[in-house]
């Protein structure tokens, strides 16, 4: 099968979050199943720098845009995944990240930037660039690609369209003037189309017009059909429920493997679990904390935003300090949260380590060095860090939501006796509920037997490889193709 995956980020080209991991790994897994999967994304400077063998393959003249745009072709990563980069320097050759200026504000012309990207993806999809390659499936991801399915819907001989929601909270909302300027077909401006309470919604376009829609875990797929999690789109998702499902993300076991991770101090496996402690000592050293392998060490990695429940961690931090444990944070985002964390690291300088910023290598060392990993998200479409933690024998403490609920099995009498327990799960998004889970983890860690080690090793044996997820995507592609023939 020929598949074009359109995305605004993909490892190893450019990454701000989990979408990049998925968009980097899924094509590799699909290709290893024998399918011809290629990626299309905007030509940000970092993406150009990290690609191999780029060459210009077409000039693009796109309706609604008077920008110069070209299509570049090359490969990405060690598996040489074929990629197309949409090169429109006035829109994409900028500092900052794909969505935000260096000062942290949305680029004011995001509608034009991703509008052009969607038009270019349609061009490639319909083989209008002289590539002599036409996909059977166009797989779009998140709001930045939400206009592709609406633009394709009436095109004869179009491929089947899939839209994957990686996070419903980011919707790509603009206004009527943006819609008009992009010269989109007028009939798209309707309640059934991209109009969303008088605004212009990219994500709604993807959900309403794609043949199949999915999100990245079964539990999140159910949650977003409710008022609480639906972000205003629960009605539409219920309406589409026959063609809407959840497929759990996999993780890349070549990149996230404690046995061969080049970024960690001491490589280890479940059979050589004691070597993990050397990573803990190294991590304590790296954060300037007292080196002592019997002090329980908590870790957090992630965006510092309301979604991730970092404020809940701040609420339980005094209790963690009272237990004598240490905690390290790596993240960036909300400036109030950044300031609060830095303040706490001054106050408890022998117990709290904080790095504000994005540091891929350090994130591996935290996964390897910490004893347990905090992920108290208010909602979590899938979440990758809890799966990395399981792989690294770092016991996750997670909220019972979305992909966290689908990947971590709570310590309890039954799960301990049948050997399935892998972490600590709590229900309510509040400090009290989180504290009860943290308290259980503290008690469990200090048990005199090897219970903690068994728990960690059970996590290491879980299989969240991409092969299983890729097969589910293939089934979804098949059903999208079938939708088109009936
Ligand atoms: P989200 O996509 O909502 O940010 P996920 O858990 O799905 O959350 O994926 C986040 C990815 O980004 C993980 O691979 C995580 O390790 C990485 N990440 C997030 N923040 C940082 C950071 N500050 N430094 C390094 N990696 C980070």
Topology:
Blueprint (H helix, E strand, L loop, with lengths): L1 E5 L11 H15 L3 E7 L2 H6 L1 E9 L8 E8 L4 E7 L1 H4 L17 H16 L11 E5 L6 H5 L7 E6 L7 E2 L1 H6 L13 E2 L2 E3 H8 L2 E4 L2 H6 L10 H6 L4 E3 L29 H11 L10 E5 L8 H13 L3 E6 L3 H13 L4 E5 L3 H10 L2 E4 L9 H7 L3 E5 L2 H6 L5 H5 L6 E3 L4 H15 L5 H10 L5 H20 L1
Parallel strand pairs: 1-2, 1-6, 2-5, 6-7, 7-11, 11-12, 13-14, 13-16, 14-15, 16-17, 17-18
Antiparallel strand pairs: 3-4, 4-5, 8-10, 9-10
Helix pairs in contact: 1-19, 10-13, 11-17
The structure holds adenosine-5'-diphosphate.
Can you characterise this structure?
The chain has helices spanning 18-32, 45-50, 89-92, 110-125, 148-152, 176-181, 202-209, 218-223, 234-239, 276-286, 310-322, 335-347, 360-369, 385-391, 402-407, 413-417, 431-445, 451-460, 466-485, and strands at residues 2-6, 36-42, 52-60, 69-76, 81-87, 137-141, 160-165, 173-174, 195-196, 199-201, 212-215, 244-246, 297-301, 326-331, 352-356, 372-375, 395-399, 424-426. 37% of the residues lie in helices and 18% in strands. The two termini are 20 Å apart. It is built from 19 helices and 18 strands. With 486 residues, the protein is α/β, with parallel strands linked by helices. The radius of gyration is 23 Å and the shape is globular. Helix 11 crosses helix 17 (431-445). Adenosine-5'-diphosphate (ADP) binds next to helix 1, strand 14 and helix 13.
